Amino acid sequence: MNARFTVLTGGVGGAKLVDGLYRILPHNSLTAIVNTGDDFRHFGLPISPDIDTLLYTLAGKSNQALGWGREGETWNFMAALKSLGGEDWFNLGDGDLALHVMRGMALTAGEPLSGIIARFAEAWDLQLTVLPMTDDAVATWVETDEGLLPFQQYFVKRQCAPKVQAVRFEGAEAAVAAPGVIAAIMESDAVFVAPSNPWLSVDPLLAIPSIREALESTNAPVIAVSPLIEGKAVKGPTAKLMNELGLEVTNHTIAAHYGELLDGLVVHSKDEAPQSLAIARTDTLMKSAEDRERVARAVLALAKECRK
Amino acid sequence: MNARFTVLTGGVGGAKLVDGLYRILPHNSLTAIVNTGDDFRHFGLPISPDIDTLLYTLAGKSNQALGWGREGETWNFMAALKSLGGEDWFNLGDGDLALHVMRGMALTAGEPLSGIIARFAEAWDLQLTVLPMTDDAVATWVETDEGLLPFQQYFVKRQCAPKVQAVRFEGAEAAVAAPGVIAAIMESDAVFVAPSNPWLSVDPLLAIPSIREALESTNAPVIAVSPLIEGKAVKGPTAKLMNELGLEVTNHTIAAHYGELLDGLVVHSKDEAPQSLAIARTDTLMKSAEDRERVARAVLALAKECRK
């Protein structure tokens, strides 16, 4: 039987690591457990940004130029919406709408999100398991100097400008991990934490008690990829947010954040790293498919080392 | 004070007459009361085909080539939906989706359809009143040789192929006319019945008791435009349906169908007409804007004659 691997992931950066692993591992040996704390309703439609980014990335449909959404996207819906007085701070592409409309219809019919995402992945012939972290509602809220903001208001509407004081995950304490999530963590040969924002994109998963407990008790090594490159984040507000929280923007902080959960950390070639856990170094900037595969090989190698 | 006019209307043909009247009458002297028996949910979104056709037509956004939907439409949503295994028998254009998504959001928030349509008309700067016949759910069902079909299954999915035995309007008996509908009929200087399919598109309005009673008791002359031209329908299944119901495809049948409600009938130049009511003749084929205005002038003139 093939080795089995699980990745905990958030948005764009995480999707790249999952894509790298998916490219080099045998089919159906990978499970991605995806943050749904960013999910929200917009125009009445249920949007799952991190899941959709992952599906688009793996299916080769992601928009390389934008860094989000679909390749070859058109925007007639938004233009028509605007002409009717609709809000336009969150862009929904014409093709992208299909995921949201289909998801909305299925949720209304009572199907759990995990079942819907499994159908989407199957329709696009993806040979891995994509799981939302939970079928329950968990909502990320950001406490800022401008007040408490729903995640998308902070991230998209306000472009991460407000200063972050704390992050909350409403509903996480009571949330049940989606079917398959706990088994994937417990039965994998290694669990990876993608280079997504630890505070915004990975913490929602860790805030679900059963997921944290599984990570604490699994025999599999837990290996993270640091989102930092030379003291900066590749994309998104990680470094800015760390500063605002009064944290040093270093891999020591990343390792300390995950604490006892972590057995190993993959860091960028030139960056310093803590000595308290196993470390691997590679160029962690993932632009091309080769980059993604290189980082994937680094996490797999470090996992193998940690299993010895 | 300007004279006021009201039109009862269904889909494409009806929208052309309303457009003709709108072009030649002073602003804000026209009320269109629109069939909602064709309304249905598709992919969870509330679709109002006849209302939307009218809005697109009046706003100059209608697709002349297709005969339905929006000008300059794109179809990325449908393509993406199909890739996810979604049904594709009813096409929703990318721009068109904006109306359905905005309507769905507002209905969910508890706003009545009439309020939503008024906002849409205002957003597009339309200087007339567009009213759904009712804010209640009324659904047209077609009894056919293939069984009982919801309207859109008969009309779009089966392309009117099944033979019609009867037409039913579920919910009509209990439906309340939308706010403004009864006042428009009672207080107009004339009421027009557009050249829409009498059995499928106008009968839903007449099946609402308060609308029928208002038409029976208003002092305004009620003038219909026949949907027949030389014994045929311009578009759609009117003639086929009349045959299937065992009716002669003539203006006598049209006049008899509306019966006592009607004071006058505008028929095509060359067609025979009953002598039991006031008749006007013109070329009723509406291709250009000039055609629409010509037919509008004919109904206005016949109304004036009937008021003498």
Structural commentary:
The structure is a homodimer of 308-residue chains. Chain A is of the alpha/beta class and 308 residues long. Helices cover 39% and strands 19% of the residues of chain A. Chain A has a 7-stranded parallel sheet, with helices on both faces. Chain A has a 3-stranded antiparallel sheet with strand order 7-6-8. In chain A, helix 1 links the parallel strand 1 (5-9) and strand 2. Chain A is globular and about 60 Å long. Chains A and B meet through helix 3, helix 4 and helix 5 of A and helix 3, helix 4 and helix 5 of B.
Task: Characterize the overall form of chain A.
Answer: globular
Biggest sheet overview of chain A: 7 strands, parallel
Spans of chain A of 5+ residues with little confidence (pLDDT < 50)?
none
Give the topology string of chain A: H per helix, E per strand.
EHEEEHHHHEEEHEHEHHEEEHHEEH
User: What is the helical fraction of chain A, as a range of percent?
Assistant: 25-40%
| Sheet/helix structural class of chain A | alpha/beta
Reading side by side through the largest sheet of chain A, how are the strands ordered?
5-2-1-9-10-13-14
Compute the average pLDDT of chain A: 95
Oligomer: homodimer
Give me the number of helical elements of chain A. 12
Relative strand content of chain A: 15-25%
Q: Give the largest interface pair and sizes.
A: A-B, 33 and 33 residues
**Total strands of chain A:** 14
Cα(first) to Cα(last) distance of chain A is 19 Å
Based on CA atoms alone, the radius of gyration of chain A comes out at 18 Å
